[in-house]
């Protein structure tokens, strides 16, 4: 959430000093306060790079209105800053210093204060300051808050020691996470949400003296220090100061062990005092050692707090703990079978510890209170889309996750966390990772072995950053391209989706789970069970969504054939976890009506775990149980009894865990159900090797974004390109041709990567390293002129390439009708019209779903569906310039109009622009002989089918398809489309002879 926060130019501050000097100092040795803002008009309403006050918000309605109001009761001067707000997402205002001016030094002051007119609402107001960096928009955010629990004017004092580093958002990913106070850029106020309100504020100023006890601090190298029984623990204590100045006065530390679960017999008590004298350099350390004692008894982990008393500086935020590791217990023995280890560990767990294992929290929820990991014995953490460490580097990820795992070592049983991310097309949250084509592109490539390689690359990059669990693949069967998640699907045909489930082996390795402990494999997640791709348009009740999280209305036969089939394949492939869908399922004739999937025990317990034999664990979606009707206790009871094993409660982990324990104690959830859930979770943790190696194995980190990994992505991009039209053989291009390139998506790495890239929704622009399509064309040796809006002269060029399509979105935010449609933008249409009127042209559509292009198809010579290729635009250039042939085929039907939707292979009425499976080729000779050749291929297809010669069968059908496409050209009628699409489905089911029979029917109709 891009909130900014900040303050006053040097000249202005100097101008205010005379006024400040007139304000009485609170004590003889304290400096006079310095006004930052009087709100008398000296600071204008403006935005960067000029100094000024400006507003911001999550959407158009969220920014507050501001005014300088005349007030006879103004605490300072004649005016105050006043405003009104009605915020649904987030919103507030900022005072920024000029971006081209110097930062200010606040390190001599105790804090910042201002007058606030209270309304007595009791609501929280957040106050932020910006520290360090190049300017206000490239600095660190530090935050604190106060409660509006009073009426009338009150001076709010915020000591700098109250400010904490923001963990949920940093404008540039953070710098050093140290509040230096020597390079300050301003302040911001975040106003309350959820109800209309007004405010008034006056006289922002710096106050007080920053004595050393505020400027100096003592930190421990870690809050938790695990140590093997009998070994010696070393705790490093460091003194540091704001601005890295030497100590002005001595800092004394007294330490003493005691008070934990370890008894004096387990260690040699340690106590003492030492002093950092005045003049000590900031960053100086001393080490305290604690020796533990060895005995012969098997034990769980025991803690030894190192209690500290600090004078002259702030003490550590937490008391450092030494943890004597658990030892000698059967569950710790890697030589024992996993099943026995699970049983032993489960037998030692309390109800609270079991509930903790079933709880998953968001990293941002525990970042400020990481001790909660041990306090609540949490089993799992995740990064939501865009929830990343600072800095967002492989090292940053590994350090963050190791820090969280270290906290889990402070628990009695030392059960490691399992950390999960949505790496849905590469390690897409990580800047610099290899970003693969989205699933829709892999479905177009029709290459299961290559799909497995893309998943293997993703797994290697994810595991190298310390993450052992991926919320992928999505096995949805997309049936309506108005759905904002369409691109997460491999296609509209369940047979196509099943064929691409080789990705599960790419993620996990062999189906029996024996490869999960490798440093380049992760646990996969089949999602979203079941029917999320079949929701009816207009059935969603989530916010402004139109189709996502809606209702899937099916007969039981349709459910089995279309939506459940891919999950049976996933279970056979040994997928380790499954995530239910937000959507509801309404099965005709079952008498239940629409029921949220998180509550459908008949599907989760009955079908998935029962009939299919799934032995992994089921993880809810983000706050998924909240959508079940009822209160928290009811939601917990319903979901767990329906078969969910772990619940993703990003910020409500305390309440969930307490509710789960209460439901078990009340007998509304059986202990047997809980034991089953925890056993499933622990099984995967043991298989992943987390008990032996909980910390990041970074051996593969050097390969993240490597040439070898990008080469796999490049091949996937090339194979995903679908050539829909190629009049006169315009493609491939020749390097000798002068090419005019235009369009919004020609040179935008963010647009070609789509949603779920660096952030949840993705964004346009240069968001991660990669090669745009324009850059790739130039690297391929093309003679290229580029004009994004086609405003440059078009004369003198041989051919035009116009790259158009969508901008990024994810989930229901991208639903058609929720601010989106399937039309090209006005700018893209204008670029297509201008270029294609001036020369022969190829149009590339970079999008997550088909775009309606029929009204312009006649003026376009070549049309390519490029999907969302990711970071490797070279793959697009490879087919454009003939380094590789076009071989991709449509994974979804391309409609003529939005009125046709939904339209899918097998429909009774089927008359699309381009049918499912359509895809022209280049660099390949089309077989001659027409229908005679097709009949011969049909006979050969049946032979291949009988012999199980799948590769030969696929080749035969491909040859037949090329013959039909050549005859049909652009005269694609309903009589051609229906049998043509049927043939592609039959090809995927191994019915090669029938597939060619259907192609013969299409040939005759062409």
Automatic annotation (TrEMBL):
Keyword Electron transport annotated: no
SUPFAM superfamilies associated with the record: (Trans)glycosidases, Beta-D-glucan exohydrolase, C-terminal domain, CalX-like, Galactose-binding domain-like
Signal peptide: 1-24
Reactions catalysed, as given in the entry: Hydrolysis of terminal, non-reducing beta-D-glucosyl residues with release of beta-D-glucose
Residue ranges constituting the Glycoside hydrolase family 3 N-terminal domain according to the UniProt record: 352-683
Similarity-based family: Belongs to the glycosyl hydrolase 3 family.
Full protein name: beta-glucosidase
